[in-house]
Design brief:
Elements lengths: L20 E13 L10 E11 L16 H12 L3 E2 L2 H13 L4 E10 L9 E6 L5
Helix pairs in contact: 1-2
C-alpha cells in the first residue's frame, strides 16, 4: 500500500478538505422511457449525472485500490438498474438511482440528474434532479 505524500503541518486547518465528492457525469444509455404512445417501446437516449459525497473514512487517503470508491460499480449499477425495464417518468428513474446510491456505506449526500436530450429541437435537454440537500 503506497502512502500518498502528506504535507502534515504545512496545510492550515482552514484549508483541509471539508467534503469529498465522486462524480459520474453524463452517462448516456438507451432507456424505454416516456408515457406518450410514440415513446412506448421506442428506447430514447437518457443522460444521467450523479454526484456522491462520502465521509472521510470512505474516501481513500492512500493510493490503494482496496480503499477506492469503485466507479465501475456505480456505472454498472445504474446500467443494470435500467436494463430491460420500462419507465413512464424520468422522476422514477431518478428515484431508483438515488435510492441505490443513498443506501451505500459512507454516503453523506447525493444528487442525481437525468436528462432526455432528444425531446425538443430548440433546447439541449429536459430533465429532473433529486438532491439530499436544499439548494436554497
Amino acid at each position: 500500500m503506497m502512502q500518498l505524500a502528506t504535507l502534515d503541518g504545512l496545510v492550515p486547518d482552514a484549508l483541509r478538505p471539508q467534503s469529498r465528492k465522486i462524480v459520474l457525469e453524463d452517462l448516456e444509455f438507451q432507456c424505454d422511457i416516456g408515457f406518450h404512445a410514440f415513446e412506448i417501446g421506442n428506447p430514447q437516449r437518457l443522460h444521467v449525472t450523479v454526484e456522491v459525497w462520502v465521509d472521510a473514512q470512505s474516501f481513500p487517503d492512500t493510493d490503494s485500490i482496496e480503499e477506492a470508491w469503485d466507479y465501475d460499480r456505480l456505472r454498472t449499477g445504474i446500467l443494470e438498474l435500467v436494463a430491460g425495464r420500462r419507465f413512464n417518468l424520468q422522476e422514477s428513474v431518478a428515484h431508483q438511482i438515488y435510492a441505490m446510491i443513498a443506501a451505500r456505506r459512507g454516503v453523506t449526500a447525493v444528487r442525481v440528474n437525468t436528462r432526455k436530450p432528444d425531446i425538443y429541437p430548440d433546447c439541449a435537454a429536459v430533465g429532473v434532479e433529486l438532491a439530499s440537500f436544499s439548494a436554497f
